[in-house]
UniProtKB/TrEMBL annotation:
Membrane topology: Peripheral membrane protein
Name listed for the protein in its UniProt record: Amino acid ABC transporter ATP-binding protein
Alphabetized Pfam families for the sequence: ABC_tran
Subcellular location field: Cell membrane
Keyword Cytoplasm appears in the UniProt entry: no
Domain ABC transporter: 2-228
Molecular function terms from GO: ATP binding
Keyword terms: Amino-acid transport, ATP-binding, Cell membrane, Membrane, Nucleotide-binding, Transport
InterPro entries in UniProt: AAA+_ATPase, ABC_ATPase_HisP-typ, ABC_transporter-like_ATP-bd, ABC_transporter-like_CS, MetN_ABC_transporter-like, P-loop_NTPase
Family: Belongs to the ABC transporter superfamily.
Length: 228
């Protein structure tokens, strides 16, 4: 589903990602872990085209992710949903408007159709009753669940999560992890940058540990957490 071949991403002199290769199969849940600044987020952002690596290749469903091939690039990027640490909801739009914006503008859905899809996903994350609220009326955990629902409205084949619970109060972490666990159970392909070791241990098929922009360990979750 995703193949990353020897990517390097530099910011000025700093090699944030220094020769990372990885492969993720359909339906696999992979957690990227490692110290702050080790390049986890940058790897994820390269996968969905938010950052452009200086060298190396990324394939999505066996097709090269290449900015120059505009149509293919757009299609491949549309296969991937991205959930940010800081939600990135539009504050001046209601929950429902946040969810229907892209389906209407990008997927050319009618307003009614977009709302129907949005309500379906809001229900799934347990927030249908908040559809007419503005984001600032929601808790952090609710905002993140809205952000996940918004991504799902675009019918992604792959979900990328960048520290989705790091900005949340502890009591709200669990409600977001539960939604992610459900997605995993349903067979979604997921790449998750996280500090939640409990989630990595119980939900991930594979854990990849980065340090200084390099993969230093990669194993199934059971093996990974066996040793200290
Ligand atoms: P992690 O997700 O593991 O915390 P990041 O991928 O966010 O690590 O960052 C890796 C390194 O690259 C860090 O040193 C970070 O400061 C740097 N970095 C990330 N994004 C940028 C950017 N846009 N400009 C400059 N430096 C960046
Ligand atoms: P989110 O939490 O929403 O995923 P981040 O806070 O990780 O977003 O990063 C937000 C932006 O800041 C990204 O575009 C990232 O590349 C950039 N960034 C991260 N570290 C640095 C840095 N050291 N210098 C400049 N920009 C950075």
């Amino acid at each position: 589903m995703i193949k990353v071949e020897n990517i390097v991403k530099q910011f000025n002199k700093l090699k944030a990602v220094d020769g990372v290769s990885l492969e993720i199969k359909k339906g696999e849940i992979v957690c990227l872990i490692g110290p702050s600044g080790s390049g986890k987020s940058t790897v994820l952002r390269c996968i969905n085209g938010l950052e452009k690596p200086e060298s190396g290749q990324i394939y999505i469903q066996d097709e090269l992710l290449d900015e120059k091939n505009k149509e293919s690039y757009k299609n491949l990027r549309s296969l991937m949903g991205f959930v940010f640490q800081h939600f990135n909801l539009f504050p001046n739009m209601t929950v429902l408007e946040n969810l229907t914006l892209a389906p209407i503008q990008v997927m050319n859905k009618s307003k009614e159709e977009a709302q129907e899809i949005a309500c379906k996903y809001l229900e799934r994350v347990g927030l249908l009753d908040k559809k007419d609220e503005y984001p600032n009326k929601l808790s952090g955990g609710q905002k993140q669940r809205v952000a996940i629902a918004r991504s799902l409205c675009m019918n992604p084949q792959i979900m990328l999560f960048d520290e989705p619970t790091s900005a949340l109060d502890p009591e709200m972490v669990i409600e977001v992890l539960e939604v992610m666990q459900e997605l995993a159970n349903e067979g979604m392909t997921m790449v998750v940058v996280t500090h939640e070791m409990g989630f990595a241990r119980t939900v991930a098929d594979r854990v990849i540990f980065l340090e200084d922009g390099k993969i230093v360990e990669e194993n199934n979750a059971e093996e990974f957490f066996k040793h200290p």
